[in-house]
Amino acid sequence: MSQTNGPLHAVVAITSTTALLELSKVPSIVRSVRSIQEFMRTVPLTVVGSQAHIDEAEVLLDRHNLFASFTVCDPDDPRALAAAIETEIAQFQAILIHDASRPLTRSEQFTKIMDTFNEGADAVRPATVFTETLKIIGENSVVLETLDRNSVKRIATPEIVRSSAIDRKGKDQGWFLPLKKNARIEHIEGAPEALRINTKEDGLLMESFLHWRRTSG
């Protein structure tokens, strides 16, 4: 597939209520939208999620003077997401997707993603290897297997996908959007602070990390 550097449309996906939680008094969804708009000031941006999540996100973004369009869909369903943003897929050469529950993603991640994409990849996202010991536990808490940590990766966002590499009726391959079989996939090194907030407790840990980063800098 040929290289493009053309127009880009950004999507911020609300995949959990944790995207609406505050981190040092700023909602995660607000931080996520800001991170994209500060990196690419003129990029059009759509927030996707359930109706309830969208209703709350509209209020939060308006309160912080941030502009976006909104689309109701299930962002965890690649086909549903592709159908919901089919107009954007048709009009733009690439779609950038960021999980709103990853509020501390830095601009360096966006830069690395774009650099790899502009080298000719069709789909790019960050990934980090596990540092923990991973074991498969069977019945009676018996360890069945110890996995090779290098073979398992933590996947993060942002993801960028070339529109011509999207298969709207394709199978779920673990990406936000279904990809064609011949899509050229690349992973860049992920950043440790770009963790996903899955619970309120995660949010408290992230607040501690944010405070440490500010005071140690």
Automatic annotation (TrEMBL):
SUPFAM superfamilies: Nucleotide-diphospho-sugar transferases. GO terms for molecular function: 2-C-methyl-D-erythritol 4-phosphate cytidylyltransferase activity. InterPro entries: IspD/TarI, IspD/TarI_cytidylyltransf_bact, Nucleotide-diphossugar_trans. It comes from freshwater metagenome. Keywords: Nucleotidyltransferase, Transferase. The lineage of its organism: unclassified sequences, metagenomes, ecological metagenomes. This is Unannotated protein.
